Amino acid sequence: MNNKRTVVDEVIAAQIAQLFSALSDTSRVRIIAALTEGEMNVGALAELVHISESAVSHHMRHLRQMRWVRARKKGRYVFYSLDDDHISKLYQFGLEHVTE
Fold this sequence. Notes:
The chain is α+β, with helices and mostly antiparallel strands. It has a single domain (10-99), classed as Arc Repressor Mutant, subunit A, CATH 1.10.10.10. 58% of the residues lie in helices and 14% in strands. It has helices at 10-21, 26-35, 42-49, 53-65, 85-99; strands spanning 40-41, 69-74, 77-82. It has a 3-stranded antiparallel sheet. β2 (69-74) and β3 form a beta hairpin. The chain is elongated and about 55 Å long. The two termini are 29 Å apart. The model has no long low-confidence stretch (mean pLDDT 92).
């Protein structure tokens, strides 16, 4: 049995807490769930998650700052996708955990 304890330092702990704070809002969780299916624009996300486009835009700003999503502009539309596979995995792990 290994008696060595692993404790992260304060900076890493704060970064992990901030990472999980992105999942502390049900609308953001639903947006992330939608984006696991692929790229979408604000209008499509708003319709799918049943919140206003303004609210989606607000959440997307937060998720972009957290580097959870990336944006691609095409004409007058902005399309969002998950930034990397880690985000999808975090969502899937959470979903599996609560549905077991």
